[in-house]
Amino acid sequence: MNQSIVSQMEVWHYPSRKELGKSVAEGVASCMKTLLTQKETISVAFASAPSQNEFLDALRADTSIQWGRIVCFHLDEYIGLSEEASQSFSNFLREKLFNLRVPKQFHAINGMNNSADECERYSQLLQAHPLDIACIGIGENGHIAFNDPHTADFKDPLAVKVVKLDEASRMQQVHDDCFETYEQVPSEAVTLTIPTILSASLIFCTVPGKRKRDAVRKTLYGPIDVQCPASLLRQAKCFKIYLDDESYSTVLEDL
Description:
Distance between the termini: 22 Å
Number of domains: 1
CATH architecture: 3-Layer(aba) Sandwich
Structural class: alpha/beta
Number of strands: 11
Shape: globular
CATH class: Alpha Beta
Helix content: 25-40%
């Protein structure tokens, strides 16, 4: 394990995805437990993607977390996809975590509802339960949640919004084996906006895999610009990014 500081961000680097996932889970669990000594309930948002598998597996294995005092959200959801669909992000989190570790509440985004109404409903829930912790990833195009470069707004006035996904985001779902073809990937989604994500007191970012190398480099060292939405994470209150050998190698080359 190697740890460094880049622009006030903690960068943690591990040889394998398993070691990375275990470390993220330990960090998140520790922060949850500390916060629960200070507050009756806390609010945590989770990303839903294969990149989070090892982290969620390790977090689920920690039986000392008081899930009954934790209100949970997720970052985004496809429009037009039911919660029962295998590709649904809320379904992913139930299978990976919440079916076995039952939180006080898990507020799922309903992709089948009227989109404007759903954004308003979810915004009100987030207002009632401001995020203490956000557990996120970074997309191949530098997106966080589904804030792709063409829709990312660093000063977004909305808490939750509807977005049209760009080609890179939709292709990533194919690369991740979530869909067989590009055409099967929904073209629109509901997402937490960038200001909502950055409002969290603590952000843990899990980014394994060689396909994320360029996005990681831009996040850590590129200009803070909507062309890499994740670059704004350098201004988060407290941000920790966890990388494996595949996502970390070449990060420091040619700078």
